[in-house]
Amino acid sequence: MTEPRWLDADEQRAWRRHLRMQSELTARLARQLQADSDLSLADFEVLVNLTDVPEARMRVTELAKSLQWEKSRLSHHFARMEKRGLVVREDCPSDARGAFVVLTPEGRAAIEAAAPGHVETVRRLMFDGLTAEQVATLTAIADVVLDRIERDAAGELGPSPSTAADA
After folding, report:
1. CATH number, domain at 32?
2. Is 25 exposed, middle or buried (0-12, 13-18, 19+ CB in 10 A)?
């Protein structure tokens, strides 16, 4: 068995700062949405996905994949949103087992009311403190990491050095 590839001090500091930033930013955005619009951050994510597609409807499986949620989590969350009138379920006419999640007029009104405060909070907490160069660097870093995640999911990166030695 090979030794773990521990993070060096700079990598560990960057990783821990990233985790703290992500956690604190998510918590602040969630509190702002709840206080200003009575939407949870998860509600907002679902509504954003639906407003980004034609006809404001997505297959349940597509929405779950887009959100990176398990189908059961989406099902439970969808039920709560449906009770509040934000979304409805429609059967798929071409697939008896399939269904669509559809944005309602109430759901559209909710996201349209929530978006200005949400984007202002994102801007105030994140982008107002960054230069254009830093935004470009952040985008480039995110692109590299997301590409590696996709390649890893597809098996293109191969096993990590520590698991390869165990095989």
Report:
1. 1.10.10.10
2. middle
